[in-house]
Amino acid sequence: MKKLSSAETRKMFLDFFKSKGHSVEPSQSLVPVNDPTLLWINSGVATLKKYFDGSVVPENPRITNAQKAIRTNDIENVGKTARHHTMFEMLGNFSIGDYFRPEAIAYAWEMLTSPEWFEIPADKLYITYYPEDHETYDRWVELGVDPSHLVPIEDNFWEIGAGPSGPDTEIFYDRGIKYDPENAGIKLLVEDIENDRYIEIYNVVLSQFNADPSIPRSEYKELPQKNIDTGMGLERLVAILQGGHTNFDTDLFLPIIHEIEKLSGKVYDAEGENMSFKVIADHIRALSFAIGDGALPGNEGRGYVLRRLLRRAVMHGKRLGIEGKFLTKLVPIVGQIMESYYPEVLEKSRYIIKIIDREEETFGRTIDAGQKLLDERLEALKAEGKSTLEGSDIFRLYDTYGYPVELTEELAEDNGFKIDHAGFEAEMKVQQERARASAVKGGSMGAQNETLQSIKEESEFLYEVHTARARLLVIVQQDEKVEKAIGLTQVVFDKTPFYAEMGGQVADHGVIKDMAGNVVATVTDVQHAPNGQNLHTIEASSELLVGAEYQLEIDEVRRNGVMKNHTATHLLHAALHNIIGEHALQAGSLNEVDFLRFDFSHFQAVTPDEIAAIEKEVNEVIWQNLAIQTRTDMSVEQAKEMGAAALFGEKYGKNVRVVIIGDYSVELCGGTHLKSTSEIGLFKILKEEGIGSGVRRILAVTGAQAYEAFKNQEIILTQTASKLKTPKFEQVPEKIASLQEELRATQKEIDKLSSQLASTQSAEIFANVQKTSGHSFIAAEVKVNSANDLRQLASLWKQKKSSDVLVLATAFEDGKVSLLVASNVLDEKSGDLVKKLAPYIDGRGGGKPDLAMAGGSKVAGITELLKHVAENL
């Protein structure tokens, strides 16, 4: 068995499949492109689904890749087992309708066992297969695999609902008796027992059926295009080749671990208690790659995952005795380890460090808040005479504040408390089930469309023309090819001026005319067929014939509006980089007729000053009348050397189309554009908002729509000036400031009068003290102007200590009701009482132990509420 570095291992895998005619697909962003089924790219096939479902036909049906991926449904196991990670690399080879079972299995065996390649001893490999897949069993035996090393497993069938599915066969490496203390042997595989002896290193999925959940698996129809999807975890393979006790004892992680040793003063023991070292090393890799790909820590979705990973890493740092911020010191090491294949981590390290530093600093304050929460909870439990910290409290500390359970237990035990392990595990199980339910293995795929995949006729898109004479090549109606059709149908011409939706630019609309100039169809949409042709969706009013010639005419007004917005998008992209930073990576766009929408990664809201600066810069470029040049004679590498930015989600061939706007913007782009920036006319940002954790969105308009936006603002300003009785616009801010000052003075007077009124009422209210169950209480309906007045009364009550409990209710003029409950009794929770009383006014609420409030809408319920205070104490 060869001993290779991780970089050599990755290269050998890719070189092997390159030698078998595969094209090497570069690793894609961890943030999925146009795939709402996935939170993260979680496998090698996840970026290739368009090939597997047949919606796109690749240039080469043989593909191989090393794809970075993230899976987070088993975060708790990271560091505990030999092989769990959040971020990992999946090595894969794929066949799209080309080779199948015989070749795929032979390739796997040759790559793993051949002296020319990895040279893993054959007697160390065990293979599982689907029991009904006799062809796979026979193929392994043909290759010389000992039948005793072939294990049938009923679960070896890959399917995720409707769509491509099929049996799979998995290859395991036997690490020996050292990792099997009970000497269970092959039983561990047969009974699918979690173990560290047999490590799965390679999986071949034989995608040959169209799964249909409504019928038995035995009745699944075979796919028109059978595919091969494989996966091999780089970390596992490297651990085997380098003889690592776990995946962490390799050159992928040890440099990080050694730096953690320096920071902590602790020594890493590969076979000892070292979970914290592993957690930190794993999580900093995931954080570095994910942030580099545009994801940012936050409170939901991807952001929540990153925030949780960071906080978990920080807490494990504390367990190792590391004080203060330290994760940023590990980012350059991650970059150095991965530089040979992923240079972007080092290239973006300053930005990654900035985000992690900011998040660590914020978490420092959160830790203090969590500590305070734990202290308060323990004090409350002591007051209640309890000696166990509840599972729900432990989970809240773990999930919200990132406190490891062990740390919570240690702190609680120091205070004489026990831990409700069962309650915590129940909460964890609920969360894990939610995570697993939302996780899709490889992401869902659509069913293959054999009719569209069969369209092989060549069709040319004409960029520079708005009308063209073309021959009709293909008609598809009701999912069948026909020779003639009328009504709703899809068609392909030998050439077309109609742009197919791509890269955020919407499709052209227009008409189709016969050679006499009569309109015979309207074009309502254009998409790419699987083999790349522009597929027109049309409504034909007259019969169309395959082979006939037609005149195709796009809606020029629509195209021009779209081009204004698309060109402005390029200017906006450049302005964002110049003003808020290079990290503002495009995360999606839409170039419509009347507006443009641009999504980008950024860690905070764009400020009004930044919005103004962006708007100004884009307009200045427009007014410079810069020429817009399109070049199609460069490779991707040449274009990038020019500084071309690849737009989010685009896939580029050998030669690329480069759009150059003066000396201001260079981007790879397949869309249509104007001849000069001045044709845009005007640019106006309408809105900037957050649409997810770390993702912002700008909505903007150009040309006539921009003029209308400015005009509408002018109308609003005119109306405002008129109402303020200010003859000049520039006087409006001063007038508003003056009115605000008057309003503040008036509000102070109102507050003063309200306080006096509350004080006047309080004497009468506080005199009416009732008693029940050993508590004294006051319950009254009062007349006040706001909920704040109720709080003022509660403040007076606390000062006077008139009773143990105070219940006040008031009805406002708009028919709403406000309820306040306050308590001076340590073991009485105001929140509990307010929840019992709120239903009387059709309301709900909550609060702290000493004061809680509720809002409702049933004024008539106040009387009943006050009657039932005593029985609810």
From TrEMBL:
Q: Would the keyword ATP-binding be found if you checked this record's keyword annotation?
A: yes
Under SMART domains, the record lists:
tRNA_SAD
Per the database entry, which stretches of residues form a coiled coil? 729-763
Cofactor requirements of the protein: Zn(2+)
Q: Which Gene3D superfamilies match?
A: 2.40.30.130, 3.10.310.40, 3.30.54.20, 6.10.250.550, Bira Bifunctional Protein, Domain 2, Threonyl-trna Synthetase, Chain A, domain 2
Q: Where is the Alanyl-transfer RNA synthetases family profile domain?
A: 4-712
Q: How is the cofactor bound?
A: Binds 1 zinc ion per subunit.
Which CDD domains does the record associate with it? AlaRS_core
Instruction: Give its E.C. classification number.
Output: 6.1.1.7
The job of this chain, per UniProt, is described as:
Catalyzes the attachment of alanine to tRNA(Ala) in a two-step reaction: alanine is first activated by ATP to form Ala-AMP and then transferred to the acceptor end of tRNA(Ala). Also edits incorrectly charged Ser-tRNA(Ala) and Gly-tRNA(Ala) via its editing domain.
Q: What is this protein called?
A: Alanine--tRNA ligase
Gene (name only)? alaS
